[in-house]
Amino acid sequence: MAALGSRFYLTADGGGRVETVTHPETGERVWSCSSCEAQGRGESEGRAHAAGCSTRSGSLPLDHFN
Ligand SMILES: [Zn+2]
């Protein structure tokens, strides 16, 4: 009955997402970011990371650095 309940949060620039899942052994909430590969623990921490993560994966040229 207790689903793992994975959940996704889009990163700030929409270029990636943070997935939060409940660890099957520890029951702890863990997250990982597809945009910058950061990992951590806690639903709120993962959501906060998503809100602050704006790492782009090279889809746009960095024109402002001249
Ligand atoms: Zn990230």
Textual characterization of the structure:
- With 66 residues, the protein is an alpha+beta fold.
- It has a domain of 46 residues.
- It contains one helix and four strands.
- Strands 1-2-3-4 form a four-stranded antiparallel beta sheet, with helices on one face.
- A hairpin with a 6-residue loop joins strand 2 and strand 3.
- The longest helix has 10 residues.
- The radius of gyration is 14 Å and the shape is elongated.
- The termini are far apart.
- The mean pLDDT is 84.
- The chain binds zinc ion.
- Zinc ion (ZN) binds next to loops.
Itemize the secondary structure elements and their pairings.
Elements: E1 7-10, E2 17-22, E3 29-33, E4 39-41, H1 43-52
Antiparallel strand pairs: 1-2, 2-3, 3-4
The structure holds zinc ion.
Summary keywords:
four-stranded antiparallel β-sheet; 15% helix; 66 residues; binds zinc ion; 27% strand; 4 strands; single chain; 1 helix; alpha+beta
Mean pLDDT across residues = 84
Q: Count the beta strands.
A: 4
**What is the count of DSSP helices, taking H or I runs of 4+ residues?**
1
How does the major sheet shape up?
4 strands, antiparallel
| Strand content range | 25-35%
Distance between the termini: 56 Å
Q: What is the 3D form?
A: elongated
Gyration radius, rounded: 14 Å
Strand order of the largest sheet: 1-2-3-4
User: Ligands in the structure?
Assistant: zinc ion
- Helix fraction by DSSP (H/I, runs of at least 4): 10-25%
The parts where pLDDT drops under 50 for at least 5 residues are: none
Summarize the structure.
The protein has 66 residues and is of the alpha+beta class. Helix content is 15%, strand content 27%. Strand 2 and strand 3 (29-33) form a beta hairpin.
